[in-house]
Amino acid sequence: MSLLPTMDELLETQDIKPLEAGDVVEGKVISIKKNEAWIDLGPMGTGLVMRKELNSSHKLEPGMDVTVSVIDPDYEEGQALLSMRKAVKDKGWDEIQRLFESQEIIELTPYDANRGGLLIELEGIRGFLPVSQLASVHYPRVSGADKDEILHKLNELTHQVLKVRVLDCSRKDNKLIVSEKEAIKDDMQERFAKLKVGDEVSGVVTGVIDFGAFVNVDGIEGLIHISEISWERVDDPKNYLKVGETIKAKIISIDKDRLSLSLKQMTNDPWLEQVKSFKVGDSVEGKVTRITPFGAFVQLSPSVEALVHVSEMSDDENIDPEKIFQLNEKKEFKVLEIDTENRKIALSLKEGGVKKTTAKKKAVKNKE
User: Fold this and answer.
1) What is the CATH number of the domain that holds 109?
2) Residue 108: inside a domain, yes or no?
3) Contact status, residue 162 vs residue 121, Cβ threshold 8 Å
4) How many domains are there within the chain?
5) What is the reported pLDDT for 192?
6) Whole-structure pTM value
7) Of 24, 111, 103, 28, which is closest to residue 64 (Cα–Cα)?
8) pLDDT in tens, 214-259
9) Domain that holds residue 63
10) Which terminus of the chain has fewer CB atoms gathered within 10 Å of its CB, N or C?
């Protein structure tokens, strides 16, 4: 009678559980062939990894320790069919779940872009960083939402190291979403706490669009609305600001994660100085800048604009401002009212203009 223990008895004494599909185990590379690799699983036997299930990101060598996933524990002659790719993916999802739960900040490098955002890979799992989750410093500010220009700016971010947090993940749905905004949120709150309305700050212009300009103030997004660019009337912000330009501006409002800035309030209001040259009853020359159904706006000086209400254009109640005025033409007006508190000036067409012409027509008609 033999006293040597059987293999089954040895396995029982070492408390080794039989392999099951889905198990992730450690092994050592025994040999590598063109289309397969053999793995020593210790007391659990040996396994075979087919070429399509090899992890292409690692160059295998005999003796190398590897992590594999069991596809079929009894594939052929007691050998297990293994996968390195699935093991890496399973291990990757475990790590991603941990990162999601801990909200740890990590660094990654996008490998490509589309119009919706950046394509990323984390722990062997491919995912997405949407445009809406980019930090303000990286957000593509373009005029008219030009899709090709947006894609161009996003492509510039590929191969740059970005700090992100896992925003959403699902192994079942194979979904991984990361956010740069969330990664800098805590830091942004600390920076915002140090700012207040009235502060003068320095920043870099990151985008100039139809309604204003975006400015990066130490990583915080600021907006200068077109009405806050200059004391003069601004038709095109691009005539005043350029992308990449460093400027100084005043904080006029703090709203959630954005600053509202003013460039014009860095200087004295020239309107208050220039309006001193006008008095009620004065005859003044001005250039028509806008025509509306209720009146026309007239530029009296670089910073002073006044309104000729439709009721001050003619005695004719049905007068059409567009039949009296043409854009950019100059005319003589009379100053009716100056309201310095509300920055308003009311004008009337000078006698001898349309009113006189209308009076002549009425006189001729009466004679007839």
Assistant:
1) 2.40.50.140
2) yes
3) no
4) 4
5) 85
6) 0.56
7) 28
8) 998 988 889 999 999 998 888 899 999 998 899 999 999 988 778 9
9) 26-88
10) N
CA nearest to 347, candidates 328, 367, 333, 363: 333
Tokens coding 338: 């100056």
Q: Are residues 48 and 72 in the same domain?
A: yes
Tokens 């920076």, residue located: 191
| Whether 126 and 179 share a structural domain | yes
What residues contact 261, with CB distance under 8 A and at least 6 apart?
201, 203, 215, 217, 222, 223, 224, 228, 249, 250, 251, 252
CA-based R_g, the chain, Å? 37
Please give the single-letter amino acid code of residue 19. L
Q: How many CA atoms lie within 13 A of 356 on its CB side?
A: 5
* Residues in the chain, overall count: 368
Is 361 within a domain? no
Task: Please compute the mean of the pLDDT values over residues 153-167 and round it to a whole number.
Answer: 93
Structure tokens at 232: 């003069």
